[in-house]
Specification:
Elements: H1 2-30, H2 34-84, H3 88-149, H4 159-168, H5 196-227, H6 231-238, H7 240-255, H8 261-281, H9 285-299, H10 302-312, H11 318-347, H12 349-352, H13 356-375
Helix pairs in contact: 1-2, 1-3, 1-4, 2-3, 2-11, 3-7, 3-10, 3-11, 5-6, 5-10, 5-11, 5-13, 7-9, 8-9, 8-10, 8-13, 10-11
């Protein structure tokens, strides 16, 4: 079951990441403006926000089995619509469907791993699943380029994940994970409020995702402006970041077997805080790339460890907590890169990147607060 869930997380990450590298091709084919092109990213993130608000109810209505495989199938339908629709509204709708269905798939995988492996091993499982996601995200970028260069077109890059979903589906190779750990309530039963510890983890996750996607979306532009690289050179240099994040997730998975999640989160955020000023301020290509790598190494485990800490702070509420965490992550993807771009229009990209530093400091402060709350019971 765990390996099937890892593969489905990788499936989600592949299709999510593919939006970036396919957009120049789609923009050229359809004559999209930058604004229209950006609507596809906003639509994907908006789908995640929707699931963050309603995902718990959806899982309660349909069950985890249907949410898991239905989310995967819906994401496939959205990808096909994005690739085949002749209308702009159709491609944007495809991105929205990908974001909505994919987010339902993702929060279900997080709930399954958390409940199946417990608070300690759950952190390991979530970090390992995100390592699989990082590997598949790198594969997505490479696949778009390889299939296009081979004359098959960018649309062929969607074939590997869709084939993988068919092979993983319960009717072909493996049975779907069974219902486990879900909490069912009587109609009208009141729930307690989520504790402050959970919201501290929610804040760390939201800030971590905001930082990750600010670098992912705008990092190449920053490197081009700051180091004088070509567009191709800046894109190649930015690959240091996802590679370092993958290394950080693999390392985080190993350390999560021995260290408490909150303590490990503080370590990873401190590493990122040490690396970011070097990336932002050095102006030297070797130092900038070294800072980018250190930042990626630190940020790699922030998302999965935050999910684990948030879920474990409210035992028996994994469907509810993963939905709320998804809301924070999707909201961060929707707002943070846009805010950085808007600030860049007034101050320039180099100065605008300064917003990342207070986000890192705030995340570290929230983890300190969470540590004090956990010690205080």
């Amino acid at each position: 079951m765990t390996w099937v869930v890892y593969a489905l997380v990788g499936y989600f990450a592949y299709l999510e990441t593919s939006l970036g590298p396919i957009m120049p091709f789609l923009k050229t084919e359809r004559g999209f403006s930058y604004t229209v092109a950006s609507l596809h990213f906003s639509a994907f993130a908006s789908g995640g926000v929707l699931i963050g608000l309603l995902g718990e109810r959806a899982i309660g209505w349909w069950g985890r089995r249907a949410s898991l495989w239905g989310g995967g199938a819906g994401m496939a339908v959205g990808a096909i619509l994005l690739a085949s629709s002749p209308a702009t509204a159709g491609t944007i709708l495809g991105a929205l469907l990908m974001g909505t269905s994919g987010s339902l798939l993702l929060i279900t995988t997080q709930a399954i791993l958390s409940d199946s492996h417990g608070p300690v091993n759950g952190a390991v499982a979530l970090t390992e699943s995100n390592a699989a996601a990082s590997a598949c995200a790198i594969a997505a970028s490479l696949s778009v380029g390889v299939f296009s260069a081979a004359g098959l077109g960018w649309r062929a890059a969607f074939l590997p994940p869709l084939l993988a979903l068919v092979l993983l589906s319960p009717g072909v190779r493996l049975r779907a994970p069974r219902e486990r750990g879900a909490v069912h309530r009587r109609s009208g039963e009141r729930r307690s409020r989520l504790p402050i510890r959970f919201w501290a983890c929610w804040g760390v996750l939201s800030l971590g995702v905001a930082i990750e996607w600010c670098i992912t979306y705008w990092g190449a532009t920053f490197l081009k402006a700051g180091l004088g690289l070509s567009s191709a050179g800046a894109a190649e240099a930015l690959s240091v970041f996802p590679a370092a994040m993958l290394a950080g997730r693999l390392l985080g998975s190993a350390l999560a077997r021995f260290l408490p999640v909150v303590a490990l989160l503080m370590i990873t955020l401190t590493v990122a805080l040490a690396g970011f000023p070097l990336f932002w301020l050095s102006g030297s290509r070797p130092a900038t790339l070294a800072g980018l790598a250190i930042t990626g190494l630190g940020m790699g485990s922030v998302y999965p460890l935050s999910v684990s800490a948030g879920v474990s702070s409210v035992p028996g509420e994994s469907d509810r907590t993963t939905a709320r965490l998804s809301l924070g992550a999707s909201g961060a993807i929707l707002l943070a890169p846009f805010a950085l771009g808007a600030i860049s229009d007034h101050t320039g990209i180099s100065a605008a990147y300064g917003i990342v530093l207070p986000m890192l400091v705030t995340a570290l402060f929230l983890m300190l607060a969470s540590l004090r709350l956990s010690r205080g019971g």
